[in-house]
Design brief:
The protein has helices spanning 37-46, 50-53, 68-73, 132-142, 146-150, 172-176, 183-191, 228-251, 270-285, 288-294, 327-345; strands spanning 9-10, 22-23, 30-35, 59-65, 87-89, 100-105, 114-121, 152-161, 166-170, 201-202, 205-206, 210-213, 255-256, 261-267, 306-311, 317-318. It has 350 residues and is α+β, with helices and mostly antiparallel strands. The protein is globular and about 55 Å long.
Length: 350
């Protein structure tokens, strides 16, 4: 079956990149991402590693841009889209499209008001096969950013102030202007959005940022921030996961990650977070068999307190001939773990 790219809607929570993520108007489970053949092959090869699959979005299949001949052969009376592997999608109206799209798990599904940060990983930013012109361009682009000093860069961020009921969106330029000395402050701003910790304000708003009032159910929701205990649990979960990813990467030299990101997400709505927290405590008290009975309904989307995934693999690959892992990538992950520990140590909450 086929659909025009114009029948899809823009993914409203994208915080970084130029991918123009899309989704179906009636489905929040899947996002549609323009991709290269290399990225598709990376997802396919990743299926051989069950442990690694838990740290990346699930891939449900691929779409490709239909040719004029294919468009003429399609039944124009069909309005619906069936997302299956190698489904055709009409992107002829989009001059800048890629030939292939991936149907990926929407990581934000299950969150009420997600707080999101996209952290670019690695000191090395180009593939070995890149020509000199491309290498020089990418090196110049990273010059003076925290890619050089930390192997990390904030590509985009979005927070939700649960007291003021305001979203703040931090664009790529915000991350490019972070330094080794104030990168931690940016993470503190992410985890504690109600405390106004931004160190670079302009007219009461962080530079380059935009704020949007959330009017959903205005006046009917208790205005509270997440508790210190919940935030620390979330940060500790992120630390544990990053360390697990780091260990896996160290043990699998064939995995070459270049230009990928870690996407960190947590529930920014205090009331929604409390409901998830309460459910987690209740499940801890039950026998495993009872838990399985309760969560056996696959049609229900389970609310989340937090999630963390590796994303963006357009320059990454599985290379069986590699015998040594890139130590600088491992170092970047170690730097992030250190910073997350400092987030807990410097919490503004008492």
């Amino acid at each position: 079956m086929a659909t025009s790219i114009t029948s899809l809607k823009k993914f409203e929570h994208q915080v970084a990149g130029h991918d123009n993520l899309l989704q179906l108007p009636t489905d929040d489970l899947i996002v549609i991402k323009p991709a290269s053949q290399q990225e598709r092959e990376f997802y396919e090869h990743s299926q051989q590693y069950d442990e690694f699959m838990a740290w990346i979005p699930e891939c449900y299949g691929s779409l490709h841009a239909s040719t004029d001949t294919e468009i003429q052969l399609l039944d124009k009376k069909l309005d619906a889209v069936t997302l299956q592997s190698n489904t055709t999608i009409n992107t002829s109206s989009n001059e800048n499209h890629l030939d292939e799209h991936l149907c990926l798990e929407n990581i934000l599904n299950g969150f009420t008001r997600p707080c999101i940060v996209d952290i670019k990983l690695g000191y090395k930013i180009y593939e070995d096969s890149a020509d000199e012109v491309k290498r020089n361009k990418m090196i110049k682009n990273a010059k003076g950013t925290t890619i050089e000093s930390l192997g990390l860069r904030i590509s985009g961020m979005k927070t939700f102030d649960s007291i003021e009921r305001v979203y703040t969106t931090y664009p790529k330029q915000y991350g490019r202007e972070r330094t080794k000395d104030n990168f931690l402050n940016a993470l503190l701003t992410y985890f504690y959005p109600t405390h106004r910790l931004d160190d670079d304000m302009e007219d009461g708003i962080p530079r380059h940022c935009t704020r949007t009032k959330d009017t959903t159910l205005e006046g009917t929701i208790t205005r509270k921030s997440l508790t210190k205990k919940k935030i620390e649990w979330i940060v500790e979960h992120f630390i544990d996961t990053v360390m697990e990813i780091q260990e896996f990467i160290e043990e699998h030299a064939e995995l070459q990650l270049i230009g990928c990101s870690l996407l960190l997400v947590y529930e920014g709505d205090a009331a929604a977070a409390h409901r998830v927290w309460k459910r987690m405590l209740e499940e801890d008290r039950r026998e495993q068999s009872t838990i399985n009975d309760i969560n056996d309904d696959e049609d229900n989307v389970e609310p989340k307190l937090c999630d963390i995934r590796l994303i963006d693999f357009h320059r990454s690959s599985w290379r069986p001939e590699r015998t040594e892992q890139d130590p600088t990538f491992v170092k970047a992950l170690s730097n992030l773990v250190t910073l997350l520990h400092q987030v807990i140590e410097q919490s503004p909450l008492v």
